[in-house]
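As a warm-up, study this chain.
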Amino acid sequence: MVSEQKAVKIQSFRFPYSLFRNLIQFLAFFALNLLAFRFVYPFIEVNFIPVPVPVLSSLNSSYALLGGVLDYFQVMLSHPLFPLIPLATILVIGSVFGRFLCGWACPMGFIQDLILKMKGVTTKVSLRKHVSLIKVKYFVLFLIVFFSSTLALSIFLQAGSGYEEALGPFAEGILLPIAPETTLFSTIPRLVQAGMESGLLNFTSLTSFGYIVLLGLFILAIFFVGAYMVPWFWCRYVCPTGALMAIPMRFSFLGLKRDPSKCTKCGDCVNICPMQVRILDLPWEKFNDPECTLCLECVGACSSSALSTKML
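Now compare it with the structure written out below.
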């Protein structure tokens, strides 16, 4: 009788994937912004590490320990240099782990998770609208690649001075100056610092930084409003890094599988998925949906333990 009760307890136990992932996100958030601690603890001897990672971590930030792979991609092309290391990073990490870092280590993803937990309600988007909006991030990625590549080509052919001047502050990276992570971790701290030095932080200090700052703040507002209205709004529909990592995600070694003998098709996995992946419509042997960030919320929500990770 006692052994049967123990067996029932073991079967009913569910690993707290969501809590564990949030803990990893929390640690990653501070690890990626580790240089901020130097302002509080000057004795910390930590310097920026020039290694690209497939998350949203701005190269413009004074706090970032590592820079985002897409930022490296844009900056290298603008000099112009072939972005071999960023492309290799995307290929290697993407083909092995897919979009795992999107769900477990991205600072902006962590912020969206916090907003979702504070809201407490998951909003669903109609399938037709959802499928259409997914294309937006690929269009954003196309614009970045197009302008960065054409600028690199024009500079390489020594015909890019006019083009570079026309792009202005966007020549260093078409999205870099106005990306939400740049605004949050670089622009706003600079605004606050300028306000503290002048003794006043007002709209005059905002406009003195130019239209780039205002545009960045507007995009950051879209990020926060979107994250409140739709779970992981930026990851789903706008993030070009997510679009970039979604390409090798289709063929990544790490994926998910569903045991049809255990699955009751209750739909709990679909309802909890922050990326609104249609899990029950995917192959049960293994699925690598390009929108899946491998957050494992579906695995934790499955009462019949039908979902699990699969390598290769």
